[in-house]
Amino acid sequence: MVSPTPGTAYSPTPRAGEAASPPAAAQGGRGLVLSSIATTILIWGFAFVPLKRLTNSELTPHPLSPEAFLFLRFVPFLLLLLVLLARHARRERPEHLRRDWPLMALMGLLIVPAYHLPLNLALRTPLHTGLLSLIVNLSPVITYGLAVGLGQERPRRARTVGVTLAFLGVAAIFLEEVIHNGAGGGRAMFSWAGAGWGLVSCASWSVYTPLRRRLAPRHDSRFVFSASGTAGTLAVLLLAPALLPRDAFHQYAALTAIDWASWAYVSLLSSFFAYWAWLLALTRYEASRLASTANLVPVLVHVSAAIFLPGERNAFTPSYLVGAALAVLGTTLVLREPRA
Asked: Are 222 and 162 in contact (CB under 8 A)?
């Protein structure tokens, strides 16, 4: 639902007897759809900067705790999700709902608390934004590995090469960061804890993706968005007494106008508007084509970090950029639709 890079979800190639992705729709309104896609990619690409601003003590004197930010990011939109859920439920078949509602609830848990709380924890660490975005963006690579391992997909040479390149790229960056920090050179911009939390978020999205694929033939994607989002947000609301720190509302009261603008960007624009626009674009274009364009998101994350987070610019060494390019290229190979 609300991944910073949700468009990079990997869709395994259908096996014999399975339904393939729906064909692209007619070309009417194509310019508007393309503009929406471009806007969505830009919104997601620049979302990491306000995310980090709201949660990291190095960028703000009053950071939100990971738990307080999770609550503030999703709970205010619960009513809107319920309205959308009621609207799109009218077209759902009751027998399919009775069968699949537990999966939708599980998807909500995976994509709201299980994805975003670890991400918030990672954002508070010294781990620089570019590397965090690369780690999170490995989800298509991990999903492909899971699909092959579980027998849902036959291994394909290009995608297997992509997996290898992606992991080699990230491994090269990790090695450089470890050597750099071991030598005590400059400000630390790496954190094992941050990388670990990023991998937890990545794993949550990787498990969510095949569940979403399983429901796709039977349910409208907008209904699944609303149902899973409602389930995940309700879980956050129900857990709030145990989850929220005692000073949570004092943290909210301390937010400045810029902080609230950052909240509106990541909550309203990135988590809700951009994802909804993406779902509408999926009704006009094949998922495999859109997924490849969404791989531009980590590139834009690096650009936005270089522009708005000057303290992280030193992390972008030549060897880092080579590793990042390998990771993006590898993920692109995994996302490419194989030739028939």
From this structure: no
pLDDT > 50? residue 27: no
- Per-residue burial over 42-70, b if 16 or more Cβ lie within 10 Å, else e, is ebbbbbbbbbbbbbbeebbeebbbbbbbb
Asked if residues 55 and 66 have their Cβ atoms less than 8 Å apart, the reply is yes
Q: What is the CA radius of gyration of the chain?
A: 20
- What token pair was written down for 134? 């690369």
Maximum alpha-carbon separation in the chain: 62
Span 288-303, mean pLDDT?
74
- Residue 39 φ then ψ, to 5°: -65, -40
Residue 258 pLDDT class (50, 70, 90 cuts): very high
Residue 243 CA neighbour count, 13 Å, CB half: 17
Residue 286 has pLDDT above 50, yes or no: yes
As a dihedral over the C-alpha atoms of residue 72, residue 75, residue 77, residue 82, rounded to 10 degrees, the angle is 170
State the alpha helices, DSSP H only, in the chain: 30-45, 48-55, 66-74, 78-89, 94-111, 113-123, 129-136, 139-149, 157-182, 192-215, 221-243, 248-253, 257-264, 274-282, 287-294, 297-308, 318-335
DSSP secondary-structure letter at 151?
Answer: T
> Do 128 and 190 meet the contact criterion of CB atoms below 8 Å apart?
yes
Sign of CA dihedral 169, 167, 274, 113: negative
State the CB neighbour count (10 A cutoff) for residue 98: 9
Residue 246 confidence (pLDDT) above 70: yes
Q: Which of 102-111, 146-155, 270-279 has the highest mean pLDDT?
A: 102-111
Q: How long a stretch of residues is the chain? A: 340
Closest CA to 195 of 111, 116, 136: 136
Identify residue 280 by its one-letter amino acid code. Answer: L
CA distance 220 to 215: 9
Sequence-separated (6 or more) residues with CB below 8 Å from residue 167? 138, 141, 330
| Confidence (pTM) | 0.84
- Mean pLDDT calculated for residue range 114-118: 96
